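Whether sequence alone determines local backbone shape is best considered at the level of individual chains. We regard such an encoding as a compact summary of how the chain folds. The sequence in question and its structure tokens are set out directly beneath this paragraph.
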Amino acid sequence: MKTVAHWLVVGGTALASGFYDGAAAAAKPSMNPIVAGLDFDDAKVVAVRAKRVLVRPGVTLSDAVVLVRDGVIEAVGEDLAVPEGARVVEGSVCCAGFIDPWSALGLESGVLSDPSPDAATRTADGLDPYEGDHLRTQALAAGVTSVRLQGGRSAAIGGLGAMVRLDPDLPAGASLLDDRTSLAMAVGLSVDGGSQFIQRPDGTFTMISGERAVDPFDRLSQIEKVAAKLDEGRAYLMAGVEYRHELEAWELAIAEQVEEIEKDFKKAKKARDKKVAEAEEEGEEHKEKRYKEDKKPKAPKYDAEKEALALAADGMVPLVVEVHRAAEIRNLLAMTERFDRLRLVIAGGSEALHSADELAERGVPVIVWPSLRGTRHSDELTGGGLELAGELAARGVTVLLGSGGRDGETTRDLPLLAALTVAHGFEREAAFEALTLGAATTFDLAHRLGSVEAGKEADLLVLDGDPLDTTTRVLHVICGGREVANRED
């Protein structure tokens, strides 16, 4: 049968094209209980039929087919023929897999709680492929296919974050989408307050461990440290740029000198021979005039930490700063305004509504952690709630939704919490974008993930209803081109 490849096709009209050169890594068949047990190696082409395909936020196709070959979306269209022998998956709605941009699922506990990483510390080195398989499976069943992980959660500098696929049967290397997807810092987070005795109502005493809020002056100092570190990165970057310019000028000068020497070689040789002869006649030794070459510029000393800081200062990776209180957010914005290439992302932002207009004007996204009022929170988290996402979005702020980066178990709850933000004023389309293309775009993976378009890797959900509807069930989950969950009756 004839198929249309590498195009988004609507009614026979090609709307968009593109192809990502790369197939998902091969993986062994899954042993998880809710997983289908069918690897896409069993069928070279998979066809997903759906009454609605949510291509990207705001673009929907009706009665469409998504063709997947070798882990990559080959074509999407309303009139596509299904190739003979293809495995067919059907459902009411097909959309991109959800992305948790602030997760802890898959990190070793020691890496997550590391108090002293530096900017060059790679979260990817702390991935644990052997623990939490059941949590990955549960998150996949809920529709989350990829997560951004960050070590050193409470450290002032958390190092370089990683974006990872959740398929538990992929080896660690194959699951890694990006090993430097962001640089992380934190401001104003509560610290361990140690142990203390409290008196119970019955008069007895018990010892508990707790947290204490950071002193306001220390919080201001932490913000100053963010700016100072960015200055270090920018200075390191500028030193490298200046060195390259000096080296280029030196090489040009040397080339010009060589050309001049070669041009005047015969004339210079004749003059030298004459001087040698004159010296011999006078019984003297002819001393050669030494050629003095311009000194080659010295390359700046390589510094891995400053190079990571330079990545953020120059906007090559986003800088994700967990900060919650209104005063710290306001000061952070003021102190980072002079870094015109910085791509700042705020994680948490419990009191970000006070700076919503400036956040919107500067295009600073906020990763909101949807939280329930009944859960225990640290001091800095009390200002946030399920309504925060909608309130920020209404003021023009780009909002993403994450599970807080503290506990790997919470990623599986993110789609439900996202649905609750919709019930509390966050527009459904905006919430859907926050979990798909918005997250992929913020962390430079929109060419691979976040939408159902030809050329992108096949992270797909097949649902029996609208995404983020609390009554909708996830029927099939395709992660990196593999079917990893099948919940059809």
About this structure: The chain has twelve helices and 19 strands. The CA atoms of residues 416 and 449 lie 21 Å apart. Residues 1-42 have pLDDT under 50 and may be disordered.
